[in-house]
Amino acid sequence: MVSASGNPAAVTRNGLIILAVVTISFTVLTVLAITQLTNNAYVAGYYTISALFDAVGVDESAILGSLVPDFSQGFYVVVGLSIIAGLIKIAIVGFVIAALIGIVTSLDIGYRLSIFSNRRMKNHVIICGYSFLADKIAARLKEKKMPFIVVDKNPAKIDTLRELGYNMLHEDFTKDVSLKNAGIESAKSVMFLTIDDYNNLLGVITAKHLNKEVRIIARASDDTIITKMHRAGAELCIVPEVLAGIEIGDAIIARK
């Protein structure tokens, strides 16, 4: 479970609540204090709103000057309240600016634009899980200038993909929304190439549900799961160890 301290939205919400409570409390106290000094609730409300929020653009000093003698005890109270009002005003503006910056940063506009672009791709290849096998396939696709996108939820692998300049998504490919963000509905084929047979099988099921026409290729570490993957909709299942064994055997035979 994510704590509120780790949730930017929760931090912003809590900060706004605290700031609102402080502002309302100060406003009420200020109105009461000025009313006590001037015996005029209207002037008290007018001064408080003007000092705290600049809601009116009229200088209230003339009104207060006629009601509060200069350098009297009341005068110093008003000056003190004005300073506090200014500090609260600075806090409000600063917090709002910080909150807006946080919101814009959390949106990650560049990433959102990439998702929009991915959803518009057609006849591309989706590689789910950046493994050693996926790396070789991605390099081959890049060499052939075929459009592709790599989906992985591991931050370290995403950094590697970014350095390679590959089109990528930092998401969990077993979720519907992730495959939709990768453009599954218009993709030519989708490959599930992690070393986890369960995740690959779950990805096959999800992809087939979203696009019954897409060609699905899956990696399998265990021969027993191949049948399940075929039943789920995989057109081709790859067992790297078997392929490597065949290739090595062919190489040995060829040297005779």
Short note summarizing the structure:
This protein is α/β, with parallel strands linked by helices.
Topology overview:
Blueprint: H1 8-38, H2 41-53, H3 61-67, H4 73-107, H5 109-119, E1 125-128, H6 132-143, E2 148-152, H7 155-164, E3 168-170, H8 176-181, E4 189-192, H9 197-210, E5 215-219, H10 226-232, E6 236-238, H11 240-254
Describe, in plain words, how this protein is organized in 3D:
This protein has helices at about 10-40, 40-55, 60-65, 75-105, 110-120, 130-145, 155-165, 175-180, 195-210, 225-230, 240-255, and strands at about 125-130, 150, 170, 190, 215-220, 235-240. A 6-stranded parallel beta sheet has the order 3-2-1-4-5-6, with helices on both faces. It starts with 7 loop residues before the first helix and ends with a helix. The protein has 2 domains: about 5-105; about 110-255, NAD(P)-binding Rossmann-like Domain (Rossmann fold, 3-Layer(aba) Sandwich). The chain contains 11 helices and 6 strands. It is rod-shaped and about 105 Å long. Helices cover about 65% and strands about 10% of the residues. It has about 260 residues and is α/β, with parallel strands linked by helices. Helix 1 runs antiparallel to helix 2. Strand 4, helix 9 (about 195-210) and strand 5 form a beta-alpha-beta unit.
